[in-house]
Amino acid sequence: MTPGEIVAIVIAGVIVLFFTALIIRTALNKPKHAPVELAPPVQIDKDKAVQHLREAVRIPTVTMVEDYVDNVQPFIDYRNWLEKAYPLLNEKAERTIIADYSIIYHLKGKNPALKGGCYLSHIDVVPAPVDGWEHPPFSGELTDDGYIYGRGTQDMKGHMIALLEAVEYHLSQGKVFDRDLYLCFGHDEEPGTSIVGASSIVKHLKDKGVEIEFVIDEGGTVIDGKMLGIPHTVALIGAAEKGNGDLEIVVRKSGGHASNPNPPTADGVLANAICKIEKNPMKTRWTALTKETFKELSPYCGGSALGRIFKFALTNRDVMSPLVKFIFTLAAPMTNALVRTTFAPTMLWGSDARNVIPKEAKVNINYRMITGEKAEDVKAYLEKLLKKDVKKGRVEVKLLNYSNPSAEADVHCTAYENIRRSILETFDDIVVAPYMFIAASDARFYNPLTDNVFRFGPFINSLDDQARIHGINERLHVDQLEKATAFFIRCLDNTLAE
Ligand SMILES: [Zn+2]
To answer: For 243-282+341-403, which CATH class?
Structure first.
């Protein structure tokens, strides 16, 4: 044997050993949690919950911006309606109106030494022009196949009503929780920026010296595990949320008449800049939370070829990181969004005459920042990417409104464990993992009160139904409302116990 052959055999042996070790490690990757039994069913007054959601939808609490800036009355009507619909809550809890239209209900617990729990919802909904709706958006129509139609049924009056039904249920049973319960209902979540309700609620609680153990808001998601090769439903609890913002790429050049162009024009430079940004996304990164997501999910992958590949790759994510990131960026926009800051060009401006070359052309880029990155980092990245044109003074990167990513909650805290348990006690054949919520919610304002800020909406909606949020024919099935109420009954019980 030549020395070359010996080296080749040794290298081959090392590679075989290495992959054998990875395969053994994958085979040993089993779920680490003790199984949780489904809770015995409780008698929920489903008809009443359905009636309440229909009534809630009929009060058009369209968020008060732009054409709806004076849409005050529905918010007052809604608040008055809550008084009638939930008599026990209104009798036993203290209600405080914040920033004119937001509401806090404070229900005292048995043990004042314990920190309280905050359950959030927002009262406002996005506008719903009636065109294209099978049933008018503020009619709360109930169809023969069990759907309640209307704006807000999913985002998020369905969530709020399920929560309130659960609170009322417990009160009807004479329950007094160990911890104080704060129901915090903001009135202006939907515009996305300059949110007064949530920040004023937090300031109010902080000023009063209220101590909070955990926060639960909408968000998170329930998905079909098949997309990750998991033969179960997967419930994802949002333990952080991405930051979001807008920026403009502005190109300035001498314009002129279209009869004697001198390329590159401002439009040309802008087009190149957009292509460059799309082709050169920011680096992928594992955050502590995304690592947790896949540590939790990987033992459940399997059952199909795709599942086994995912299980192998995710179990060995530490040594196969570049490959896993590569798979993620290609697999789906959602998995790509979990591992990096994303850019989406949205609005474009150029010349306003057909025969005039503009002096200025610009694009709006909506960006979503992964935890650990800030708006200033995004600006610096884009300036570096476009540095030639920036140096020449013809391109400017202008930060507009933004909100940086939230902190990542510790998913080993008791509150997280209680939410996880409540999901498993309510839904059959489901796997739970934490993740980085890729949209925005009021929850991000609550970090001054506690690190334990979580997002979870207990609804298993089809992709078709999910796509109706903020769109036409938003609807919720009555069985979903019932299940969500059952979830909140468990969750209140678990999280507010000592
Ligand atoms: Zn919402």
So the answer is: alpha beta
